[in-house]
């Protein structure tokens, strides 16, 4: 089963996105901040990471840079998900190593299309 790591500091947003991913047949691992995301990435080896940008402990930009620095075997795709969808925010996320940038609220059709493009497969229920 394809595992997605979902990183968001808001429980309700994390739960809503996790349900959508699970309904599409993905296994979901979660983290509530960037520090947990770095640790979970090493433990879970997800096929893709959905990374919130504004979080406590370690923000999504710094977490992505740490994941990229440690990711020597493969390049795990990272999709930045953020309510702060200004051009500068997108540029910062992409410069940190994110592969894609999607605004919140999440358009799930767009999200699943992006996941499919980045991991090279359709969602399990497609």
Give your account of this protein's structure.
By secondary structure, this protein is of the alpha/beta class. The chain has a single domain, classed as Response regulator (Rossmann fold, 3-Layer(aba) Sandwich). It is built from five helices and five strands; from the N terminus they run E-H-E-H-E-H-E-H-E-H. It has a five-stranded parallel sheet with strand order 2-1-3-4-5, with helices on both faces. Helix 1 links the parallel strand 1 and strand 2. Helix 2 runs parallel beside helix 3. The longest helix has 13 residues. The two termini are 14 Å apart. 34% of the residues are buried.
List the topology elements.
Blueprint: E1 3-7, H1 11-23, E2 27-31, H2 34-44, E3 48-52, H3 60-70, E4 78-82, H4 87-96, E5 100-103, H5 108-119
Parallel strand pairs: 1-2, 1-3, 3-4, 4-5
Distance between the termini: 14 Å
Low confidence ranges = none
Quote the beta fraction.
15-25%
CATH architecture: 3-Layer(aba) Sandwich
The first-level CATH class is given as: Alpha Beta
CATH fourth-tier homologous superfamily: Response regulator
Overall SS class: alpha/beta
Radius of gyration: 13 Å
Number of domains: 1
Strand order of the largest sheet: 2-1-3-4-5
The whole-number mean of residue pLDDT values reads: 91
What's the number of extended β-strand segments? 5
Order of helices and strands: EHEHEHEHEH
Shape summary: globular
Give the number of helices. Answer: 5
The helicity comes to: 40-55%
Indicate the CATH topology: Rossmann fold
Please outline the major beta sheet: 5 strands, parallel
């Amino acid at each position: 089963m394809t595992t997605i790591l979902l990183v968001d500091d808001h429980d309700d947003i994390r739960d809503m996105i996790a349900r959508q991913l699970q309904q599409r047949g993905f296994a979901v691992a979660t983290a509530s901040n960037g520090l947990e995301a770095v640790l979970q990435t090493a433990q879970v080896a997800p096929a893709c990471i959905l990374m919130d940008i504004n979080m406590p402990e370690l923000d999504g930009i710094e977490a992505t840079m740490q994941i990229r620095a440690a990711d020597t075997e493969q390049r795990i795709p990272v999709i930045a998900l953020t309510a702060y969808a200004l051009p500068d925010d997108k540029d910062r996320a992409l410069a940190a190593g994110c592969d894609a940038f999607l605004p919140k609220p999440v358009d799930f059709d767009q999200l699943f299309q992006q996941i499919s493009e980045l991991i090279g497969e359709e969602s399990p229920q497609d």
